[in-house]
Design a protein that fits this description.
The chain is of the alpha/beta class and about 300 residues long. It has eleven helices and nine strands.
Length: about 300
């Protein structure tokens, strides 16, 4: 694997390899000295043109725990704010001799473009409304761990239903999860108001439903999505209150979940809009497990790209 640009780049064998290695990497999290020498002498640049808490910090921690040198560059505070183009910024960073470029950009396809301009490995940390492949990998890692609590050797998600609920139109997390979960055999049901379902969804390998209460009792995993108000220009729903009534994971809806089902959310959450505090903090919420998995999975991915025979 040279770059990680899309969840579609990964077949089942590659996903399993990344998740299995992430299990080993997760052992580092419990050690007093969190350091492996695997990427000593390698340089990773996190180039973030959009805000991030989880992705940027977990890529940074992952790189540092593997002994790579990690440099963070954000749009604000760099020469991007003086008008430097994406291409010139990427070429400038690459000219310094970096081994991997982790890039988040508001334009869909920006990491793909970057991978054409430079020799370094490129990892997509979220591009516009397109994809967020390491989020889908960490979600799969978290879901696999949850399912393995009742089925220890589980490898694929056949027979399991994942409901992805909310703002599908603007969600790169949903797109990457649909691709990855389909590869692992899960049945994915997308749940949203018609205004938040993208054009062309008929060709996706999913079922689509606009009634959350119909889907909720069937789902083994309920993945709530953030309502991305910063990407919305018009009225996608009448009021936040009405959105919550129809599509929020409210306290009464917790009672409707299938026994043993678990809650995911990629974060950041709009508590009180798409997810209630009761749901976010419930015993069956995996949200903080997802955050922890972010470090292990990104260690695994960085190792896969940078730590091999090369
Ligand atoms: N899930 C996610 O990408 O979170 P951040 O925007 O905080 O990185």
């Amino acid at each position: 694997m040279r770059h990680l640009l899309s969840a579609a780049d990964l077949d089942q064998t590659q996903i399993t390899e990344i998740l299995d290695l992430a299990e080993e990497m997760s052992l580092v999290q419990g050690r007093p000295v969190k350091k492996l020498p695997a990427l000593r002498g390698r340089t990773v640049v996190n180039l973030f043109f959009e805000d991030s808490t989880r992705t940027r910090s977990s890529f940074e921690i992952a790189g540092k725990w593997l002994s790579a040198d990690v440099i963070n560059i954000s749009g604000k505070g760099s020469s991007v704010s003086k008008g430097e183009s994406l291409r010139d910024t990427v070429l400038t960073v690459a000219a310094m001799g970096v081994d991997a470029l982790v890039i988040r950009h508001h334009a869909s396809g920006a990491p793909w473009q970057a991978s054409r301009w430079i020799d370094a490995h490129v990892l997509n940390a979220g591009d516009g409304t397109h994809e967020h492949p390491t989020q889908a990998l960490l979600d799969a890692f978290t879901i696999r761990r949850h399912l393995r609590s009742s089925t220890p050797d589980l490898m694929r998600f056949d027979g399991k239903t994942v409901a992805i609920v909310g703002d599908i139109t603007h969600s790169r997390v949903a797109r990457s999860n649909v691709l990855l979960l389909a590869t692992l055999g899960a049945q994915v049901i997308l749940v949203a108001p018609p205004t938040l379902l993208p054009a062309g969804i008929d060709s996706w390998p999913v079922l689509v439903c606009t009634d959350f209460d119909e889907v909720l009792p069937q789902a083994d995993i309920v993945m709530m999505l953030r309502v991305q108000r910063e990407r919305m220009s018009g009225g996608y729903f009448p009021t936040p209150r009405e959105y919550t009534i129809s599509y929020g994971l409210t306290r009464p809806r917790l009672e409707m979940m299938k026994p043993g089902a678990a809650i995911c959310h990629p974060g950041p959450m709009n508590r009180g809009l798409e997810i209630s505090a009761d749901a976010a903090d419930a015993a069956n919420s995996l949200i903080l497990e997802q955050v922890a998995a972010g470090v292990s999975v990104r260690m695994s991915v960085l190792y896969e790209l940078l730590g091999g025979a090369e």
